Amino acid sequence: MSPKQKQHAGSSHASASAERREHLYKILVIGELGTGKTSIIKRYVHQFFSQHYRATIGVDFALKVLNWDSNTIIRLQLWDIAGQERFGNMTRVYYKEAVGAFIVFDVSRVATFDAVVKWKNDLDAKVQLPDGSAIPCILLANKCDQQKEGIVNSPAKMDEYCREKGFAGWFETSAKENINIEEAARSLVNKILLNDKLLQNNDTRDGDKFVIDHKIANGDSRDGANKACGC
């Protein structure tokens, strides 16, 4: 390869690297004690399941790296927040800068479903997207390999519940049997990426609007000058 060809190959490689995008997203995994939050994270990140987890105290962390497409790497920082933490004062700190969440309940214990709305209200009160809207949140009906109690037996009622409470969707999951964990995560990441894109577009439009308004205010716009003369 000639020096010129090498230089061209090097510049092509550099431009390909420059186009590669990386994102780091903070995702919360919340819900009542014993609903399987830690098991879901272990299954998703390490493809591992155990019956014997100690209850999470405070908060724990895990990192999942996704090669989303040929140009995009996504790092998910999963925050495993203890079930009893909703009653503490630290959740505002834990929730800070999160861009997505899972709320988990146990399909075999209806009381854990009854608590879902309290977690959702707490979440919406303490963290929002930059435009003030709620972060996307997916409801996980976990342990679906066990006997189900309550409205989770009716998909139509679950759909209606999620619409009413502002969930971005819901999935029946099982960390033990590895059911729908990847699918739920992919759905949430898709919604996060969509929000990212919308926010970036809004920022661009706001920036353009500022430039145009600034020019008109200073008499730099030809269109603005013509309109002023025609009045």
UniProtKB/TrEMBL annotation:
Keyword line: GTP-binding, Lipoprotein, Membrane, Nucleotide-binding, Prenylation
Instruction: Offer one example of a GO biological process linked to this entry.
Output: phagosome-lysosome fusion
- Gene symbol? LOC114241669
**Superkingdom classification of source:** Eukaryota
Q: How does it sit in the membrane?
A: Lipid-anchor
Function per UniProt: The small GTPases Rab are key regulators in vesicle trafficking.
Q: What's the name of the protein?
A: Ras-related protein Rab
Query: By its UniProt entry, which PANTHER family does this protein fall under?
Result: RAB FAMILY (PTHR47981), RAS-RELATED PROTEIN RAB (PTHR47981:SF39)
Question: Where is this chain primarily localised?
Answer: membrane
Q: Which Pfam families match?
A: Ras
Asked if Membrane is a keyword of the record, the answer is yes
